[in-house]
Amino acid sequence: MTERIVCVGDSITRGQVSVDYVQLLRRRFQDRPYTFVNHGVNYDLAYNVAGRLDRIVAEDPHHVIVLVGTNDANATLGEANRRLMTLIKRLPVRPSAQWYADNLAAILQGLEERTYARVAVLSLPVIGEDLDSVPLRRAGEYSAIAQEVAAAHNADYLPLHERQVEDLRTSGHRPGTHYRPGMLLSSTASTQHFVLRRSLDEIAERRGLRLTTDTVHQNSRGAGMIADLIEEHLMVRSGHA
Question: What is the distance between the alpha carbons of residues 2 and 133, in angstroms, rounded to a whole number?
Answer without folding.
Answer: 43
